[in-house]
From TrEMBL, chain A:
This is UPF0033 domain-containing protein. PROSITE patterns: UPF0033. It comes from Natrarchaeobius chitinivorans. Residues 11-35 form the UPF0033 domain. CDD domains: SirA_YedF_YeeD. Belongs to the sulfur carrier protein TusA family. InterPro entries: TusA-like, TusA-like_sf. It holds the Pfam family TusA.
Automatic annotation (TrEMBL), chain B:
SUPFAM superfamilies: DsrEFH-like (SSF75169). Residues 1-18 have a biased composition (Low complexity). This is Peroxiredoxin family protein. It comes from the Archaea. It comes from Natrarchaeobius chitinivorans. It holds the Pfam family DrsE_2. PANTHER family: CONSERVED WITHIN P. AEROPHILUM (PTHR34655), PEROXIREDOXIN FAMILY PROTEIN (PTHR34655:SF2). Gene3D superfamilies: DsrEFH-like (3.40.1260.10). The lineage of its organism: Archaea, Methanobacteriati, Methanobacteriota, Stenosarchaea group, Halobacteria. Residues 1-21 are annotated as: Disordered.
């Protein structure tokens, strides 16, 4: 996946459906350093709205960008605190 | 005359405000304000949200909503309690949770009429079909969701009264499940929660 972010880690949740993309994103973010960007690659079409809701409702994370690439939904999340 | 006197007494600067509160009364008020401020800090904790779900159903399909909501809320950093009672207890029962069934009878979403759905083996067949769909869809299993919830600090509680009613043993439940709790504990959590759900 090409992107302008320096991603510290990529999380592959292809083939998984709700709530796994969110739960795994949260668990992966927990292990990152502040300032790190996580790339989440999903196939669940609900993940776009779910990641938005999660990022808005959760302290210390910021959703930078979401890209829809055919059957793949790629989300960039920064750990801010 | 008397009204004039009243107006002039304020000129010395003390008559108006001072006599309304005795020093002891003021002190008591100050202490009360401190107390309330402290309780406000206690009450809000870290500002995180709380959710309590009461899970009463133990069929295969009804096990999912509380577990999905609980694990997702935990991902939001919420403090989550799921209080399992009556058939909901089977979700936490290590052996029974692996054999939860979908009921074919009385389920208008089933592609077969009730008369057929009541035949022996239909529940098992309906459950198998659903399990296969869940696997194909990449949906987590009940066991996976329980593990995930516990891992993330969700408090999965098994109602003590129902444990005894169903002749279950505390050791029958997954490690990490809270036992020895009742309706009062559940109510206490509900009263403190931002979200309360009955499933």
């Amino acid at each position: 996946m090409s992107s302008e972010y320096h991603t510290a880690e990529t999380l592959d949740v292809k083939g998984l459906s709700c709530p796994m993309p969110i739960v795994k994103t949260k668990q992966t973010v927990d292990g990152l350093e502040i300032g790190d960007v996580l790339e989440v690659v999903a196939t669940d079409s609900g993940s776009t709205s779910d990641i938005q809701g999660w990022a808005e409702g959760t302290d210390g994370v910021e959703l930078l960008e979401q890209i829809e690439d055919g059957q793949r939904y790629v989300h960039y999340v920064e750990k801010t605190a | 005359m008397s009204t004039d006197n009243r107006a002039t007494t304020t000129d010395d600067g003390t008559a108006d405000a001072a006599p309304e509160f005795a020093p002891a009364e003021l002190q008591a008020l100050r202490e009360r304000v401190d107390e309330l401020e402290a309780s406000l800090i206690d009450g809000t904790d870290d500002g995180g949200k709380k959710m309590t779900i009461v899970a009463t159903q133990g069929s295969f399909d009804m096990a999912y909503p509380p577990l999905i909501l609980a694990s997702t809320a935990a991902a939001f950093g919420w403090d989550v309690v799921v209080f399992h009672t009556f058939w909901g207890l089977d979700i936490l029962h290590e052996e029974k949770s692996k054999g939860l069934k979908l009921s074919a009878v009385g389920n208008p979403n089933m592609p077969v009429p009730n008369a057929l759905a009541a035949m022996p083996g239909m529940d098992r067949m309906a459950t198998r079909m659903m399990e296969r769909k869940i696997d194909e869809n990449g949906t987590a299993t009940i066991e996976e969701l329980i593990d995930l919830s516990l891992e993330q600090g969700v408090d999965l509680q098994a109602c003590q009264m129902t444990i005894e009613l169903m002749d279950y043993d505390e050791d029958d439940f997954y490690d990490g499940v809270t036992t020895g709790v009742g309706a009062a504990t559940a109510l206490q959590h509900m009263a403190e929660s931002d979200v309360q759900l009955l499933v």
